[in-house]
Amino acid sequence: MIPLRHLLIGDEHDLPLLSSLLRTLPPDTVGELVLELPDERRPLLPTPPGVTTRHLVLGRGRRRGDRACAALEAWTEEWLLDEHLRADAHAVFVGLTHNPKVAALCDRLAAQHPTLHMHRPSRVGSVH
């Protein structure tokens, strides 16, 4: 069964994998692509019409992963409510495999929401 909503979060290191994933999504896919970037450059990744793209620039004083974690936490607060907790409701891809803060948040979310369909790339490029 195809999930109702997709969330893809990554940084500049995840762009090739995100591009590949986006090419596999059906044209009627709905969701968000969130990119945490070190500067104002905005890579253009083609997305289905129902997928919006947000660019989160790190800015001074922010550590890598801070904005991605904030976005993921905000998304879970909005979408992981009782009426949206079916296993087929969402598919989540979270990159930033090099970031321990992101990994800890993903582990916590997986424990809190065991039916959440979440994927993380391994350090060698495959997706779990």
**Mean of all residue-level pLDDT scores:** 87
Number of strands: 5
Q: Which percent bin holds the helix content?
A: 25-40%
**Number of alpha- plus pi-helical segments:** 3
Give the overall shape: globular
Stretches with pLDDT under 50, minimum 5 residues: 124-128
Main beta sheet: strand number and arrangement? Answer: 5 strands, parallel
Q: SSE order in H/E notation?
A: EHEEHEHE
| Count of domain modules | 1
**Rg calculated over all Cα atoms:** 14 Å
Distance between the termini: 18 Å
Look at the helices and sheets and give the structural class. Answer: alpha/beta
Major β-sheet strand ordering:
3-2-1-4-5
Classify the beta-strand content into a percent band. Answer: 15-25%
Protein name: SIP domain-containing protein
Organism: Candidatus Brachybacterium intestinipullorum
Domain SIP-like Rossmann fold: 5-76
Pfam families: SIP
Topology:
Layout: E1 5-11, H1 15-24, E2 30-37, E3 50-57, H2 66-79, E4 90-94, H3 100-112, E5 117-119
Parallel strand pairs: 1-2, 1-4, 2-3, 4-5
Organism: Candidatus Brachybacterium intestinipullorum
Pfam family, one: SIP
Protein name: SIP domain-containing protein
Structure description:
- The protein has 128 residues and is an alpha/beta fold.
- The protein has one domain.
- It has three helices and five strands, in the order E-H-E-E-H-E-H-E.
- The chain has helices spanning 15-24, 66-79, 100-112, and strands at residues 5-11, 30-37, 50-57, 90-94, 117-119.
- The protein has a five-stranded parallel beta sheet with strand order 3-2-1-4-5, with helices on one face.
- The chain is globular and about 40 Å long.
- Residues 124-128 have low confidence and may be disordered.
